[in-house]
Specification:
- It contains 5 helices and 10 strands; from the N terminus they run αββααββαββββββα.
- The strands form 3 sheets. A 6-stranded mixed sheet has the order 1-2-3-4-9-8, sandwiched between helices. The chain has a two-stranded antiparallel ribbon with strand order 5-10.
- InterPro entries: ADP_PFK/GK, Ribokinase-like.
């Protein structure tokens, strides 16, 4: 009943008002994606939602530390399927932004020419916020942080895909693809955990604040 009220409120909002929906774990196959321009989720929620759009059983268990290429391929497919469903239904909003936050890295897809700005800066801020939130500190202590992302990553699991090295002087990597921009940033993983609850909300909000 509450989700029904939420859907009604979102559908009545002005198209000029950008709407972000932050995912959470779910096991109900009757889940209905709300009217949203932007989606945020973690590495477990991404394959779960993707399996729902594929029409298959929900993915209850998933890789807790997926490779960048795997996540990017899943993001591309989810982005395509959500917008395909939007076109077929003729209602709701097209998806123009997708943010996936994992323990090791942040990845954001933004439609070119959309209202979302500063994608590189947003990805960097989300990454830094992940460390600050988990460590419970406004400052980043490098003695309590480590990189677990590989020194380079492929942009897709397809054979022959481009491989991007991690550059210390420019750690956020961005590139253009078919109609959208993708940015990936490594996370300085906190090694002395202070808190984890609310991590996704804080990380996604940090990315959003620079894009609106």
């Amino acid at each position: 009943a509450l989700l029904g009220k939420l859907a009604k409120m979102l559908s009545s909002a002005s198209p000029q008002t950008a709407v972000h929906f932050e995912m959470a774990s779910f096991v109900d196959e009757k889940f209905v994606l709300p009217h949203a321009d932007s989606l945020g989720m973690n590495e477990q929620e991404l394959p779960n939602l993707l399996s729902l759009f594929r029409g298959s059983n929900l993915t209850v268990l998933s890789d807790p530390n997926p490779r960048v290429a795997t996540v990017l391929d899943q993001m591309r497919e989810l982005y395509r399927l959500v917008n395909q469903r939007h076109q077929e239904a003729g209602t709701g909003r097209p998806l123009t932004r997708l943010h996936v936050h994992t323990l090791a890295f942040q990845a954001i897809i933004v439609k070119r020419g959309s209202k979302w700005k500063n994608t590189m800066s947003a990805t960097a801020k989300a990454s830094l916020t992940a460390n600050r939130h988990v460590c419970g500190s406004p400052d980043i202590d490098l003695s309590k942080a480590r990189l677990i992302m590989d020194e380079s990553f492929s942009i897709s699991r397809q054979e022959g895909s481009q491989r991007i090295p991690l550059q210390e002087s420019r750690p956020v990597s961005c590139w253009d693809e078919d109609g959208y921009e993708i940015c990936v940033a490594p996370v300085l993983v906190c090694t002395e955990v202070y808190q984890t609850a609310g991590g996704g909300d804080n990380i996604s909000a940090a990315g959003l604040v620079l894009q609106i």
